Amino acid sequence: MGAMLEARGLNKGFGGIQAVNDASFEIEEGTITSLIGPNGAGKTTTFNLINNVIRADSGSVKFNGREITRKMPHKLTRLGIGRTFQVTRALDDMTLIENMVVGSSAQNLRGTFGSRMLDSETERALDLLEFVGIEKYAYSKAELLSYGQRKLLEFSAVLMSNPRLVMLDEPAGGVNPALLERMVDRIRRLNEQGITFFIVEHNMDLVMDLSDSVIVMAHGEVLTHGTPEEVQSDGRVLDAYLGMA
Ligand SMILES: Nc1ncnc2c1ncn2[C@@H]1O[C@H](COP(=O)(O)OP(=O)(O)O)[C@@H](O)[C@H]1O
Ligand SMILES: [Mg+2]
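That is the input. Now the predicted structure with magnesium ion docked in place:
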């Protein structure tokens, strides 16, 4: 068995910009791996290439040894990859429960299994909202949530499909310290249960504290990949950040 996720030679250009440039890396099952780098380094594009939200110009991605390049996002969900998006997409007019159920892949099965499926989904959504601590808003509209609570909603919605790999794009961005602490605690708990995390995050203290493994990107390229200690003592990493200042 190789790595859980294996990206090889990923490339993506937008006009004159090489957003992702020959990026290769592996993510080991059971780890919390972070992807860091200055603004514009290509982190979100890399996530999008893995999820096939954006089509790679070249390169391949394998999940548990299986080729997933160009597989549709809903197929990836079924294979066990879950992902939140940087932009909060919670649908304001819907309740939290509705947001959770609409986003879940089980939704596709409703036509087949009828309302029983709906009940079990609702139950699971409630359990997950409780897990992240926002269950009291379950039947309120998402528009009532604070920014941090929305992030918790997105986080719990990703868990609806029982992912084995959870990809989070800037989960801590703009989240107040109390809710951030809760988010981090839940990530740790799920990781202890065996769920693998791949996280893009700007909060360095958080990254270094939470991660087993850190991948650094700059100018679309993977600069280095190592433990938090290795990455922090790598001069090229500091150069990359200063170079963007
Ligand atoms: N849809 C797009 N169209 C054109 N350029 C894009 C698009 N998405 C990203 N880029 C560019 O690609 C580069 C990498 O962006 P991104 O992956 O969002 O970086 P990061 O997430 O590391 O901040 C940036 O220069 C950005 O402006
Ligand atoms: Mg980004």
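The domain at 5-243 is CATH 3.40.50.300 (Rossmann fold).
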